[in-house]
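idk why but the lab printer keeps eating my pages so im just putting this in chat instead. protein + S-adenosylmethionine:
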Amino acid sequence: MRLLDAVLRKGLPLEAALDTAARDLQRPDDRAFAHAIAAAALRRLPYLDALIDAATRKRLPDDAKARFALRIALVQALALGTPHHAAISTVLPLVDGGPRKLVHGVFSAVMRSKAVLPELPSLPEAIVERWREQWGDAVVAAAARAIAVQPPIDLIGDPPAGVDGISLQPGHLRLPRGTAVADLPGYEGGTWWVQDISAALPAQLLGEGEGRTVLDLCAAPGGKTMQLASAGWNVTALDISESRLARLSQNLARTGLDARVVAADVMTWSPPALVDAILLDAPCSATGIFRRHPDVLHRVRPRAIAELAEAQSAMLARVAGWLKPGGSLVYSVCSLERQEGEQVVGAFLEQRDDYRIEEEHRLLPGRFEAEGGADSFFIALLTRLGSPPADSRG
Ligand SMILES: C[S@@+](CC[C@H](N)C(=O)[O-])C[C@H]1O[C@@H](n2cnc3c(N)ncnc32)[C@H](O)[C@@H]1O
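predcted complex ->
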């Protein structure tokens, strides 16, 4: 209940809310279960609410405790296979001294009605409108299908041999969700890591490094840093978050890859010299990774998207000065909003006639759907015009 409240009323990310909201749960499996219930409820929220509304005479307010308790009980009974008596008896204490009878009555009525989850889950109405306008009905339908299921696990780099999975491109292996990655052969010292196949594209656009310098900006937890380092780039990985950088350093240590790690704010830091390439994986609404983080669809509002777009434009404008003429810059966001992708790059190109766009990739829901899907991204490869200094290679 605290987790759902943190996301839906306070607008916090589900993962970030977990530590505080689940502070009373000592056992990791209890915490994991609380997380699973909240995530499952967020994947199905419009439908759960419709069931609740159909079984109540007076509409419960969106933030009513009874509605939260019912969402938790219903999603367990309908989606997680919790026995009905357990699903209801564990939520009743949440409304102690309050609408116990109402919650019990509504739950029983829904169970008697033999409700089942619909084939095609619904997305929040505001999202449907926004994405239909931007991408059309087919993409909205693909997104609705995608949110129902937890994504599989993609390994990128040099995945271990002899492990059963499907490979969708060189340097990729897809495993069923729930696979215990740390138990795979060669976990320690293996030059592979967990990274969605779509998230792997930005660094791939930069190609082989051959010892050239690259700034990996907004780098933590380091998926793209590892790609760049293993492709032979001389990497400086920068991020503002010390805790996320600690994970980046652990990732580098495990894979034996090398990068210079810098804790700093892109908006105040400056590099000691111009570089051969830049990867700016800007902070964004994360609406493109809704399969992993269903909370984004319920808490990211148009105002936040506009603010993020402004920050992204400012970052791109700043870092563009750090690239050698002839060098490449990749801008990427895991967002399904044109405002954070196409529009940021479009406005940038209007201001900088020393930059040209080489490639633009808009990865939408429906990509690799038959194989288990993929995250959604906007990725642009830009070059700075002019010739590189003769000694820039090696
Ligand atoms: C999309 S995530 C990066 C994912 C990472 N590139 C990867 O592939 O693993 C965005 C990152 O931007 C960082 N960030 C946000 N604002 C920043 C700033 N002003 N300066 C530097 N890093 C920032 C966040 O801490 C976060 O780690």
